[in-house]
From TrEMBL:
Domain of life: Bacteria
Pfam families: CoA_trans
SMART domains xref list: CoA_trans
Record keyword Lyase present: no
Recorded GO MF terms: CoA-transferase activity
InterPro entries: 3-oxoacid_CoA-transf_A, CoA_trans_fam_I, NagB/RpiA_transferase-like
Keyword hit for Transferase: yes
UniProt protein name: Succinyl-CoA--3-ketoacid-CoA transferase
Keywords: Transferase
């Protein structure tokens, strides 16, 4: 596990055409410092797995406008009108999943499960092309697990070993994404010494985390602000 001095150093290994999981619900709990640095990096053809693709001109929305995103996999794309416009122009592929299905598919990927059957989406357009199976008289569709090359997550505190603690609703998709990627970078507000975090408050154990970096951009009631 490495403590990076800058976000630029933290995302150095990210490459074009990778699949990247990004935590957050809207901008809440999103790793805004890492996303901002990614907007400065010369990459393209990215597949982004995230609840949504940011907001108009904010967060992952900047990457969409830069045409660095080839495909988005998520559940709430209408929070950013630019995403719909890019899709209509044929510049962006979208895979829409119900929010619970998105969460469970990521969890399955982190748990080493290849996929699962769910009733959600049966009989709708979301089930087109998916395997259907009847179990005890009930129809289900098969959903494959989701995994990624890299996960960018946002936590509140980390110790120098890489154990992570989350703050309130920032604990949305971040913990499960930290289990479902080959390489995990955590953006945090504070880095403390081992033993300063209570074992009961640690949500993501250090064995899932490859690197941490201090946040320099945070979300406030007035929008995204630079700190530090």
């Amino acid at each position: 596990m490495k403590i990076f001095s800058t976000a630029k150093e933290a995302i150095e290994k990210l490459e074009s055409n990778q699949t990247i999981m990004v935590g957050g619900f809207g901008l809440i709990g999103a790793p805004l410092t890492l996303i901002d640095e990614l907007t400065q990096k010369d990459v393209s053809g990215l597949t982004i797995i995230s609840n949504n693709l940011g907001e108009k001109g904010k967060g992952l929305g900047i990457l969409v406008n830069q045409k660095k995103v080839k495909k988005g996999i998520g559940s709430y794309f209408t929070s950013n009108r630019d995403v719909g416009d890019a899709y209509q122009r044929g510049e962006l592929e979208l895979e829409l999943l119900p929010q619970g299905t998105l969460a469970e598919s990521i969890r399955a990927g982190g748990a080493g499960i290849g996929g699962y059957y769910t009733k959600t989406g049966v009989g709708t357009e979301l089930s087109v092309g998916k395997e259907e199976k009847e179990i005890n008289g009930v129809k289900y569709i098969f959903e494959p697990a989701l995994k990624a090359n890299v996960a960018l997550v946002r936590a509140w505190k980390a110790d120098t070993l890489g154990n992570l603690v989350y703050y309130k609703t920032a604990r949305n998709f971040n913990p499960m994404m930290a289990t479902a990627a080959d390489y995990v970078i955590a953006e945090v507000d504070e880095i403390v010494q081992p033993g300063e975090l209570s074992p009961e408050e640690i949500i993501t154990p250090h064995l899932f985390v490859n690197g941490i970096v201090k946040a320099t951009k945070i979300l406030t009631k007035d929008g995204v602000k630079s700190v530090g």
